[in-house]
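## Example record

The block below lists the input lines for one assembly entry, exactly as stored, with component labels intact.
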Amino acid sequence: MATLAAAPPYTESHTEPSNSGIWSWLTTVDHKRIGVLYLISALFFFVFGGLEAGLLRAQLATPNGTILSADLYNQMFTMHGTTMIFLAVMPLSAAFFNLLIPLQIGARDVAFPRLNAFSYWVFLLGALFITFPIFFQIAPDGGWFGYAPLSTKAYSPAINMDFWVLGLQILGISSLAAGFNFITTIINMRAPGMTLMRMPIFTWASFVVQFLVVLAFPVITIALVFLQFDRFFGTNFYTIAKGADPLLWQHLFWVFGHPEVYILILPAFGLVSEVLPTFSRKPLFGYPVMVYSTILIGFLGFGVWAHHMFSVGMGAIADAVFALTTMLIAVPTGVKIFNWIATLWGGQIRFTVAMKFAIALVGMFTVGGISGVMHSSPPADLQQTDTYFVVAHFHYVLVGGSMFGLFAGLYYYFPKFTGRMMSEKLGNWHFWVFLLGMNLTFFPMHFSGLLGMPRRIYQYDSGQGLELFNMLSSVGYVIQAIGVLFGVINMWMSWRSGARASSNPWGAPTLEWTIPSPPPEYNFAEIPTVKSRYPLWNVKGGDTLVHETTWEEEKNTRIPTSRELGIVMPNPSIWPLITAAGIICMFAGLLFLESSTMLGVGITLTGALWWIGALYKWLLTPLEDHH
Amino acid sequence: MVGTFRPRRLVAVALLGALALGLAACGETYPNSTFNPNTEYNAAIDALWDRLLFLGTAVFVVVEVALVYTIFRYRRRPDGGIPKQVHGNTALEIAWTAIPAVILIFVAIPTVRTIFKTQAKAAPDALQVEVIGHQWWWEFKYPQYGITTANELYLPNGRTVNFQLKTFDVLHSFWIPQLGGKRDLISNRTNFLWFTPNKDLPSSAWNGFCAEFCGPSHANMKFRVYTVSPDEFDQWQKHQARPAVFPLASPDSTASAVAPAPTGAGSAPVLQVAAAQRDTALLTATPATATPATATPASATPVSATPVAYTFPMERIEREFPHVIPKTPIPVGLKFDESTLPNGDPTRGMQIYSRSSCIGCHVVSGNRMSMGNIGPSLTHIGARHTIAGGLYPNDAKHLAYWLKNAPHMKPGSIMPTLGKGETDPKTKMVMNVGALTDAEISDIVAYLLALK
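Predicted structure tokens for the full assembly:
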């Protein structure tokens, strides 16, 4: 624990990393800067995935739409799902893991700072790898779920699905590396006194999510490796002509796919559980139950996967079992909803934009949760599955749940990481317009689904009673897009010229609000000792109100550099990026196998040597200078 | 004042507008609604759904009212001070863990019951129908009656039908929203699904869909279902079991006349001689079939000595079930000289058909040249109301465009481009050698429509 008093002597070899210029971003190992990189990349892909959705809604606005061909429509819906899940919501969550976890637990960085940079670069390069084919109209077209045998070479002979098979493996590497990193960080690097049950609830949610990641991603990796070997090397895991059982893919995919749903929603739950107490000026109601329910949801999440498969004919017993486990998981989820409302109850509620998004999550996620219970009942689900009813359901969960929670987190934590407040006025436009557009888009889909509209169709006939609902959904999309535009403008303008933020503009209770905004590179000049769940509210010691701090009070405080404090921070390194690029090269080589074996093998081997060499160089470079 | 215009008000106005539109929508008809208990299967699902909707709405109202009330009542007041720091309440938390659990028991019990009821074995005397999914059309076989047909199902009211679901290629899902839940078609497996159209159901027409994503034309893999009276079904199945009635009077003579005893290269002249002989017979017997574009089931009857063929009457479809008539527009850019259609000659059509690539993929029972089994059976295609997996209505015009350039009419279709000068959308090759002129296509159209 370095403090001012015990500062070691300044050493020549220690170089203060420069904080500007592209090179500093390419080499950064600072979890906050990596978090910002994740945030910007993920928001870019969120907008990109939204534009893909725009094309889908334009096509479906009227019967027999002709804006997209069948082939392009299939590419668009595949990429919309893949983009939103893997390139927008997951990395947005990752942005918050990076930005918040070390601050919330009172640490100076994550356990493995360079591995953290590596995770980001693999994500970014993998995301570009899977996205760029759309500009050449050769994007993946087999759905984000990639069901075999449609995704096998026999039925998808073109290069499209190759990008998907390889791209998802690349993204999996990123998620797994980050998962192990954060588990290690949370277990080992908590400040003194921060017992597990004093951990901020967002960190708890993240902790559970990392276990879901490291347990679920290997399963889809196996499924993808099988498919990759089928497609590139002629194996027969999914070759139906050789007697393969296509349900192998479905089981593997959904054993990953359902925990993935919780990977997408639990971080948002965590963020909302931070926002609601702050703006109610009350502790989270039933903190232990919230923790246990998160763990329980994570655990049960691995036992419900086959509810995605009620229509495949697993038999009455399997259907009944998975129906019951699915209904069971609604219980801990319901507890969360009631505990959130109880947190608000009796509070002094301040309706900031962050708070509005958080409250809206409670309201909107409930809609998605209820429709979820509706298709937990297999006979009912057999009328609902693969229709727009399901599309309505999971958009209420992922937009009304995940995105509202992430927006709440964005408005809440933006001042902490930029030192600027976001505009409440623009934020209000963002919130209300988006809320309206979201409901107008997705609520009518309940009807179009139950009235007989299958999913993933690029055209529907007129006279089927579907015109009005589809038109409403498309108009709703435009409204949503305008809402997001308000949000993007707000971010951009606030980042450049928003009001200056103090260390604790909201009067919030947790550790991250004790340090300056934006935090110095080393986060905490002195590692704090934690005595309660809400250190700043000091709730155990009585009801002393900690007012939010103001910029005026703080602007003359000088923030010392790490050198002055004698805190040794990890050196920047380019090797994580170079290693990541080598891995992409290795995977990309396989794309050339079919046109030229020599070329494909050559590129793959080059990539392998490249990343192994870069990894050696990385491992042989010390993390920090001697002191 | 712009300054006082708040986004919240905009939302309130817009929500009212949406509500009004939603109410307006209630007046419409929904031909593919999942809520109609036309079978015992759908009635069981519907009973479950009613319960789910009731409980779901109750939970929704309770939660949203509690939420809105709370945020309204506890909004910050100037003199608020610090609220009481409540950390939790064990009794309350146990209560709202237990109450949802109890509610779920009321869902779980009927759910499990319905699962076992609907997935029990079908009645032993059930009508057996084998459903085989293809990219992107449906093959239907009635093994008890020796019938193979495509894209149009006939089911007798009051009799349980047991579907055996299989796929030729990728996964599909068999779904008739008005008659029951869906069931997937899984490669290398056989799935089952059964239901009984209500005994007192009037003869009706329904839409069926593929509900599992299966490639480019997933949207275009539809089918029609006709639930008819047992008598009508009986007439239909008797007729379907016979070879096509074109062109000679009885099935026996059809078989012998059309059979050119294919013996390699020498068969072509034989066929032409046989066909030339038949030309006279046909044309004198039934001049009506020479204008097949206007042919109706009734006009086909004179050619045949077989019993009256039952086809779900087009007049009733137009009057009562217009939603089962496909309205897909013909793609822009596809040209066909429609003036050749009235001159289409079924006999010439049969000759052209029988020496073209058609026979490699399609079967016409009664035409021994036509033995392919890749595409749908065309045996009684003239008696169907739709073509191309339910994508287009079965009339001379649509059939002609379809024959001219099927992959253009239906993305991904493996039926090749046949029209002269047409470009295959996939290979980008222009068809010339062996390709068909518009006049030849009109002849084939006349032949196919005569296959009642």
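The two ends of chain B are 72 Å apart (CA to CA). Chain B has a mean pLDDT of 83.
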